[in-house]
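To whoever is on call:

I kicked off a structure prediction for a single chain this morning and the downstream step that reads the tokens threw a length-mismatch warning. I double-checked the sequence; it's 85 residues and nothing unusual in it as far as I can see. Pasting both halves so you can look.
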Amino acid sequence: MNIKEFILNKEMLGSFKYFWKEANIDKNSKGYGLIRDRAPSNPNVASIAAVGFGLTAIPIGIKEDGYPLKKDMKGLTAPLILYLI
């Protein structure tokens, strides 16, 4: 692996982890699947922008080894899309 691939992989994993960490994975919550925006400064607000970026991060996580379980990510995506509709 060259330095460019190393940096890209590190950025991909870091970005994915942010969205996975900030996603509401409590299935009993009204906001299940929503993703907090600017988590440190405003922990109770989710935005459509954060959710959109999170939805694009999930397929990357499904593709890459070493990321959370695929079934967990797939289980979050469908209810979130239905919630948004």
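Update from on-call: the warning came from a stale cache, not from the record. Cleared it. Sanity check on the structure: The radius of gyration is 13 Å.
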